[in-house]
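On clarity, I found the account of how folds are encoded harder to follow than it need be. For illustration, here is how one protein appears when written out as sequence plus structure tokens.
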Amino acid sequence: MMRSARRFGLLTTGTLVSLLVSAASASAAANDSTGMQQISNLFWVVAIIGVAIGVFVGIVMVFTILKFRMRKGHQKATYDPNRPSHKLEAAWTIIPAIILLVIGMLAFQTLAYTDTLPQHPDVYVAAIGHQWFWEFWVNYTNGTHIHYPSGGFTVPSNVTILMNVTSVDVDHSLFIPALGVHMDAIPGHLNQVWFKPTMPGDFHIECTQFCGINHYQMVGTLVVTP
């Protein structure tokens, strides 16, 4: 029994270390845009609460197994199902409800930030899906217009970008993973999404909606300059 408890402790420790390493890598990448920062903050809150609950339940489980296990020479404990613990029942109802309420409020705040379109963006980008490439028009408020027929586009860092996404043939879905940008491109319909890149670099663009035999070719690169 003690050997099983040690194994459980080692497994728990290894899992926590793996989560911390993975979360540290994700947190470093989350600084690439303001939207990803908000998403990362929400992830950390949910992850910490989830790990804390898992550790608490594991400790209680191991303690209960070790303390109340059957021993030689001991009689089996009796349990009266007609004696409910109202305090315990209230605790396991109220505490999860509070946790869910807090997570729900934080998630709503994150959605309000990421889904509220800016009134005065610095750059307007038109993203047009084709089989099987992305076409971009980048329009600056100073009157500069740049056309990128395929392959991606370039914008400076620390500017607010409003992107209009559509398609000319079939359904596509524009995805820039590192920046938290994801929006469907639907023929005859205009969808809008915004982001603000904060770090220079090259960011992968892909289509996440199967759009035909050459769907895998529908990739590009967003270049963010200093």
User: Anything to note?
Assistant: The mean pLDDT is 86. The domain at 123-225 is CATH 2.60.40.420 (Immunoglobulin-like).
